[in-house]
Amino acid sequence: MNRILVTAALCALWMPPALRAQQPPPFWLETGGALIGGALGFGAVALAHDPGNCELECQLREAGFALSMGWVGGAAGAWLAGRAFDTRPSALGALVGSLAGVMAAVGTAHLLSEEANVSTTALVVVPVASVHALLTAAGSRLHSRWRGSH
Hints:
Largest sheet: none
Number of helices: 6
Structural class: mainly alpha
Low-confidence stretches: none
Order of helices and strands: HHHHHH
Number of strands: 0
């Protein structure tokens, strides 16, 4: 993991100034916002979780709350990042995309942890968060483009 961070930092430092000055495409800006917003939403529930004092009903309630917070957090993050960088984001598209992203993230988590027997949490969290963020940004950009063509 440290090698990846060092490589990313070196690439950013050696990037030509003209390329560094360019704004990334709106899709990637909104994906970053959705990634941060979704992580804050899911993370808030994970921090409040009390594993020793929870039966099945409590676990299902916490899972539902985590998914709801991730859904809203991802959509809000994509929309706020889009507004901050003036990409004309779509709140409705981000909400729909984030909902699809949460559902796909649950499927991805199941696929990795149950079917592929991946036991390392980091190897599950990164793809799950990425799938959620990508679909959230895709929903925002698609609705924004559709809205602009009408």
